[in-house]
Fold these 2 entries.
Entry 1:
Amino acid sequence: MIAHRLTGNPDAPPVLLLNGGLMTMGAWEPIAGRLEGDFHVLRCDFRGQILSPGEPEPSLEAHVADVIALLDGLGLERVHAAGTSFGALVALKLAALHPGRVVSVAAITATERITPAVWEGSVRAREAALEAAAGGDGGRVLDHVIPVTYSPSYQEAWAEVLKVHRKQTALLPPIWFLGIARILSSLEGLDLTPDLARIQCPALIVAGEEDRMFPLEHSQALAAGISGARLEVVPGGSHGLVIEKPAWVAEILKDFLAPLAS
């Protein structure tokens, strides 16, 4: 079973929070803490992330299978699934493949497909991860990711913290870099468009107006492809919404979930 943490109200509806590609579940804490009074909150690290080390199969379906195994192991029949970036793609695939297990889905800073431009950036990050696994500078992975994840103002305000984060990342073991490379490989040629019509549960699409990794038109395409989906656009928001604006993300999730959980 992949590493996980289950907190909050055990008598309340379960909410599953799924990580972005380079995240670990601790990054959800500012959001999870705001949800725990009303929900049973489940977080996990995907295979290949820091608390679930290994080399996952390079496909979304493999990660969906891991999530289903986790839910089965915990005895959770149905969940509200919310994810950001890579985790949002897994959440959408989960809702399409296992509609009986997903009450609702929230996709934060996501995309309906991986364009050649997005894949070009992912390839560079993957190559940096593979080089790091072979003994290179692991901080180079973040050199590719940070500029397209966070807003310029956030990068400026948190410059010293991000420098420390880069140094810490460079010290991670080779297995982490191999896992990240495999996670990035699962994006190659990805097209969720055929899956969207299969998603019949309530859906929330949250977009950052200034998202440089998955530009706004991709969130709009997601919302258009899922029947009845609600689209929320954060003015000036970046790809890193869950880190930069956790209070706002928590409130929009609570607003979306409240009528579904009653």
Entry 2:
Amino acid sequence: MTIKEIKSQKAPQPVGCYSQAIEAGNLIFCSGQIGIDPETGKLLEGIEKQTEQVLKNLKAVLEAGNSSLDRVVKTTIYLTNIQDFQKVNEIYSKFFGSQKPARATVEVKSLPKGALIEIEAIALK
């Protein structure tokens, strides 16, 4: 099995020692994205803006790996406030069509750079 790093210039560069995504066989494993605007390098304000940017960032990484959001089979969402669950769902549902991926949502104490949300994904190539 070939393992290859995927890089997108349209998504923020990693804030730590990891890849944006790894292709292994016919799967793409996307590292968690936070709501950083790749053009400014700044974290957006508020859960709604961060959620939308996270999903745009994931989309950019997947496209760099010749995949797309409709090929996502599993996501994990990390929230610093589980009370944001419904707001996140409303935005999340706009990015995924009728075929929603399997998903877990977990409340965490904190995220890098003070982010309110982080989402990781596994997709088919």
